[in-house]
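S.,

Sequence below, as promised.
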Amino acid sequence: MIESELKLKPSKKMKANFKLSDPIQCLALGFGSGLAPKAPGTFGTLAAIPLFLLMSPLSAMNYLIAVLIISLVGIYICGYAAKAGGVHDHPAIVWDEFAGYFITMFMVPVSWQSILVGFILFRIFDIFKPWPISYLDKNCHGGFGIMIDDIVAGLAALGIMHLIF
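The prediction came back faster than expected:
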């Protein structure tokens, strides 16, 4: 059994015990990418790229269905991991970054340029959290709260992606 105690910036004092041996926690932690000691959300988004490439040949309808399932199941996955770790919206929980990035890339032509621009745009919206993302981040709780700000960040990045591409 692999167990990891994460220590973040002393100012946040957010300690959590996650078990990668638990399949649900493993998903929530982005297959371990969220355990990166610095910038776990960025590493989680990077880990989403290979999965995006596997999903990219899907028809628009099938891709949309997959993203809806990933997002809805993510509410449970993220809520479960937060409860198991004892910390709401711990930075190591990155399944929401997967969903947000997949939303960002919906119906965007696949190229290394679009993958890079989508990555950068999604990270900007996720890190800086302009309104209404910041409102949702502060006022929604549980698995839904963990997911919704990244879903909206993905939608904002998606809008810009369609303007660019």
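The chain has seven helices and two strands.

Coffee later?
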